[in-house]
Write a structure and sequence with these properties.
Structural class: alpha+beta
Number of strands: 23
Strand content: 5-15%
Radius of gyration: 44 Å
Oligomer: single chain
Helix content: 40-55%
Mean pLDDT: 81
Strand order of the largest sheet: 2-1-3-4-5
Largest sheet: 5 strands, mixed
Number of domains: 5
Shape: extended
Length: 732
Amino acid sequence: MSKATAKPKSPRTSEPTTQSPRQTLANLVSPKLKQIHLDRLAIVYVRQSSPHQVREHRESTALQYALVDRAIELGFHRSQVIVIDEDQAQSGTSMVARTGFQRLLTEVSDDKVGLILGIEMSRLARSCKDWHALLEICAIYQTLLLDTDGIYDPSDHNDRLLLGLKGTMSEAELHLLRNRMYRGLCNKAERGEVLNHAPIGYVRTLSDNFVIDPDESVQSVVRSIFDRFAKWGSISGLLKSLVHDEVQIPVRPHFGDDRGELQWRRPNRVTLLNLLHHPIYAGAYRWGHRDVDARKKIPGRPSTGRTLRDYKDCRVLIQDRFEAYISWEQFEKNQRKLQENSRKAGRFSSPVGRGESLLAGLVVCGRCGRSMSVSYSGKHLRYTCQRGAVDYGEEICQSLAGRDLDESIGRLLLEAIRPASLEVSLAAASDIAKQRGEDDRRWKHRLERINYETELARRSYAAVDPENRLVARQLECRWEEKLSEQETLRQDYQRFTADQPNDLSASERELIHSLSENIESLWRAETTTCEDRQTIARLLLDRVVVSANPSNEQVDVDVHWVGGFNSHHHESRPVDSYKQLSNYTELVARIEELQSTGTSSAEIAACLNAEGYRPPKRSKKFNKSMVTRLLASLRLERGDAGKSSSDRTHLAVNEWWLSELAMKLSMPVATLHRWIRVGWIQARKVSEARGQWALHADAPELERLTKLRDYRRGWGETKTPIELTTPGPVSR
């Protein structure tokens, strides 16, 4: 071909592009790696899933760190290569706790990263959500990924598809591994061979089994815990009993420098609850009582989301697997008692030991079925059904004074206890003797332990070379400390045996027997606390259902005893006026009958008390003044008032005598007298009528006073409206 007909060469083919040595080297490895990538950072991500892998799988860690050299071979300078190894011993299932992975995403988002290197893609993420988030960011900022199989470009469709498959397989692989390991664990658990830390009172043997702690002092304390719970029937009673007797809990730590060494710690509620709920003390093996609820699990915190199952619902429950402290029947009885206590706790408005109420938490409203709360006002006690008022703004359902109800139920409790008084005295003597025996054994165990530690310190001092004073001085001080502790403990034991001998004396037995014969005196004794009475009430009673008649003093009481027996009773409560008494008509007839025979007011009061009549409010008996006031009120109602009350010559227009206005408004004279003292009504004393009160009340005032009488303070109101308490002008 001639020069005239030859086509000119393309500029791209005629003049070859000049490439840097780094770019040329990168092209030899992969054409995807360009100069734009080499000008940015290369990040090597290093991660192992658990502390065990970090310690044991050293080769895998070394391979990951060797990727630094791989990045240099691809053309990156050493200063451009960053190693992120902050996520060692972190699982790849979530990025919440992986600060290194979060830092990686931040660097990519800042358009600083050209290549991410990992030994395999599972090192970067085991979650498809985190994996695809990384791919999306890498595709946007043109960041490549590298593993042992090659280099991938997330912005390329084929590479993106392959990376997506790798992420899915990585997550599925983790699921398969976990599933396979879990099935093996279940297989082992069904044989009762999956053991963790030994609970209190047990030790783990070399043959991988749990046996009762060989230390007798440990055994004694654990058995004492179950005996005390059987006696007191509650965690609170058990804890107070242990604290009172200065009993400490034996613990062998699972971690730290003192691992496996016996330590004595103060008792606490959580430890006691775990001990009572654990079926191993009845010889049973359990596994699978702690499931994980995914809704409650917090990412990055492996111990969260756990839910506890009842011992009956465990995945594996094998009875008679270990040595036992208690029988299986006793264990189930303890669980029923704990459940019953938990059920009652939701009903109690005040716990045992707070307040003087005998039935706090046991009283139930017979109208709505809600628990009635306890309130104290000075020396007065009330049971009020106000749950509906508090929760829903309803009216208070019912309310009644609590002293009389407590007295009545207390008498029922004494009647229930009295037939077993002899058994009570024998049981009390037996319990005291048993308790003293346990205390004496515990003291002897402590003495044996301090004697052993003292002898061990002596032998250590005797075995050292006397010339080695650096060691001998320390051992000598330790021996002296043990000798001092030994002497102090001996003196404490001598005081204990002097105060509480093992056997009860004849006088102590006679005292117990005499107290059991007079249960009522023991019940009312000053040494018997409110907490003691409340504990007895909760042991015998399930609930007390009360229904107060709103129109009189009658109260229907249904007592539900523990065991299923129910008894029905009628009680009385204090009311505001005589007319609210159910026997008001009978009472008036009897008073008039006695008065017609010329009987004095004092004699009438004595006769009414003897015949069983009771006045309203909180008074227990009638007296002379009560009868006199009641007779005067009856005369006013019939218009047969005395001269001073009926004589209106000393009254101005629209004025009333105190008793007249009280009868007009149908309210107690005492209440109207209080209104005079606080200035809610205008009144004056009439000297001509022996200083009686004359009250001003025209038609508007009568209307205001009627509204004031009927007013009931609402929820949240602290004062009576001023328009009802302000007297009007005097009209003549």
